[in-house]
Amino acid sequence: MKFQPEPSTAQTIRAYGPGWIGVDTEKITTSIILGSGGLRLAWPCTRFEDLTPEHFAQLATLEAELIVFGSGTRNRFPPPAWLQPLMARRLGLETMDTPAACRTYNILASEGRNVVAALILEAPGS
């Protein structure tokens, strides 16, 4: 699916497909943490099953209003105990499949919100 560009100063996901997203002019094929203010961090996991509590502790260190978690090709929820560092900082985490997370991130970023997307980009066939 390809998005039509709208005027925004935020980092934008321009397109996505199985195992990749297009951010501005770059094609990304590994899981990533992406922020509307320009943040880009590698997120070392290739599948939902690779996640650990440390992945969510890392998200709790980020400055954001909201974190959108793209759990891969389908919507899956992390264990509630793993979200404790986020709750302690009063950071919201919305969980959805990665394509929905891409769309939601773009909407919030275009509104000028300080949003972070943590996206699992699973290789096709995973």
Automatic annotation (TrEMBL):
InterPro entries named among the record's database cross-references: MTH938-like_sf, NDUFAF3/AAMDC
The UniProt entry, under Gene3D superfamilies, shows: MTH938-like
Kindly give the Pfam families that the UniProt entry links to this protein.
Answer: DUF498
Indicate what this protein is called per its UniProt record: Uncharacterized conserved protein, contains Mth938-like domain
| Species the sequence originates in | Acidovorax soli
